[in-house]
Design a protein that fits this description.
The structure is a homodimer. The first copy, chain A, is an alpha+beta fold. Chain A is 34% helix and 26% strand. The first copy, chain A, is built from 11 helices and 12 strands. In chain A, the strands form 2 sheets. In chain A, strands 7-9-6-10-8-11-12 form a 7-stranded mixed sheet, sandwiched between helices. In chain A, helix 2 packs parallel to helix 7. The first copy, chain A, starts with a helix and ends in a 9-residue tail after the last strand. The model of chain A has no long low-confidence stretch (mean pLDDT 94).
């Protein structure tokens, strides 16, 4: 059985084989965004993300406004992961007739525009289609970054330090609460449900790291730390060592997790936290502290030469962290 | 009940109201593509198109290769309608597990790449997602055009001549044959079914019109001549007069239509021919003949001052042509 990563490799090799002219792109398939030269000073980064009803969201768990917000947020997170500033976007939405007859689409766009306004993202196009029964959204966002300065997954060097923004595991814990029947209107855990339903992209931090040239590699935490760190290590041809005691668990995770194992599982494999995972040269630690003094970020580990192996160090013990984050197939 | 055009107006007005900085775009929502400044010489055009199973296609009527071709073709057609040269593309695809277990995605990309190769379009990214039961595709294509020279829907002037490329009604007739049970493997009417299943974007003609600056306005025929000409007239604040005797009906349409009315309905309201409809200054007729001498195109009418009214002239009779092309809602 093929995995989605094997499919991506198939497409990538086909794409390269057919290329019969100098490529128009700097970075194609396989990073958070593609990178395309714009002009002499600037590169364009672009990403697209599908959200499918009953796979990526449940209509009765969310609101149209949250969904509009999340559709934009997931793509903004990819743009942030390149160190780029978001600029414009397109949205394609497919909805069944019964939803069309409600105020669903207007409320969806209200949520979308509320977030777009925060980061000055301009909606320039899209498509509207009917579906037979499920809602589907495809979100496309482009950003700009100084020429050659997009932060790729592939730039991590041995001995670089590994950082993560914000707190981890909140989105997975929020999902578990939703699955167990809690709903946003009634729950005591609104902050956890919001981590799942209305995630905040780390747009500002992404831009600081891009403009100040402070990160050697970066990826956003969409699938989960264990998988996304594995992607980064694979792209950079390095390994990683993570210190269990340094993981910034979401503050409510401790009281809401049944066990240490569940707490780690939410933070490592849960996905959808949409925080940024990045590596930096140790010499830049001082500048990171300075430039990101108003933002939450944590040093959680270091890059090793143990290619594609992620070790989790807890006291004197070290275990291999398997990538168990979200996969569609 | 709102229409999709009313929704587009809602989104457009929201977008304009929230714009709190100089716009990054030249042309936003409402044309075949958005137009964004790229550098001092070039503008970027970009479009996105959703294809939804059992709304836009039926899995048992088509093949994965045809679907991959069509997903790219519909967006290439939008890029052609701006007079632009396609450059790069992204594809998001959502498929159910049962299709994932077959060779569907590989064959889909085979069809996509076969067409991409013809026009040197580079695949730079995309997304793959699971769905619960239906296939969905979102196709994103960007093109380049000389700065300020994108051909908009809004440039038609009274007394301009109206042209259409190729032949009309074939795709609608092909759809009717599919609906009546004909299948590609067995039909005698392969050419008509191909018009529906594997449409040809008019990429070369679009580029000639763009580079030679020969058209005042252009739109691609996706919804149907009656609707698409109405869109062009609305955007240009003009009317149009079409000569029934000049319509280039698909060559098989006459024998396969039950009546004159059905023949006209296929050609005017059927949609999905993905030909180009454009207007040009009468003085350019000579240059059009010269520059497009190796391509099929037909003069079918003229632009009038009778704002947003499309007349169909047949002999001495004139009737008002109502927009009856495809609408999702």
């Amino acid at each position: 059985m093929k995995s989605e990563f094997e499919l991506i490799q198939y497409i990538k090799s086909k794409s390269l084989a057919l290329s019969c002219q100098p490529s128009a792109v700097r970075i194609g398939i396989g990073d958070d965004c593609a990178v395309i030269p714009k002009n002499e000073r600037t590169d364009l980064v672009i990403t697209t993300d599908l959200l499918i009803e009953d796979v990526d969201f449940r209509a009765d768990w969310t609101t149209p406004e949250f969904l509009g917000h999340k559709a934009l947020a997931v793509s903004l997170s990819d743009v942030a992961a390149m160190g780029a500033k978001p600029v414009w976007a397109l949205v394609s939405i497919g909805i069944p007739e019964k939803a069309w007859k409600t105020d669903f689409v207007e409320r969806f766009y209200d949520g979308w525009f509320d977030l777009a306004k925060k980061y000055n993202v301009e909606l320039i196009g899209g498509d509207v289609s009917r579906t037979t029964d499920k809602i589907v959204v495809d979100s496309i966002v482009a950003g700009e970054v100084k020429k050659g300065k997009a932060i790729l997954r592939s730039g991590a060097q041995p001995d670089d330090l590994i950082y993560v923004t914000g707190e981890l595991g909140g989105a997975a814990c929020g999902l578990k609460l939703l699955e167990s029947g809690e709903r946003f209107e009634k729950t005591e855990h609104k902050n956890l449900l919001l981590r799942q339903l209305q995630p905040n992209p780390q747009t500002k931090i992404g831009q600081v790291l891009g403009v100040k040239n402070l990160a050697t590699a970066m990826i956003d935490l969409s699938d989960g730390l264990s998988s996304d760190l594995a992607h980064l290590c694979q792209a950079s041809k390095v390994g990683a060592k993570i210190f269990a005691g340094k993981i910034p668990f979401h503050k409510n995770l401790i009281s809401l997790s049944k066990s240490e194992k569940e707490k780690f599982s939410h933070a490592f494999d849960g996905g959808e936290d949409f925080e940024l995972l990045f590596t930096a040269n140790p010499e830049n630690n001082f500048y990171l502290e300075k430039e990101l003094k108003n933002h939450s970020f944590t040093l959680i580990g270091e890059v090793t030469t143990n290619v594609e192996t992620v070790e989790l160090v807890s006291g004197n013990e070290s275990t291999i962290l398997q990538p168990k984050g979200f996969r569609h197939f």
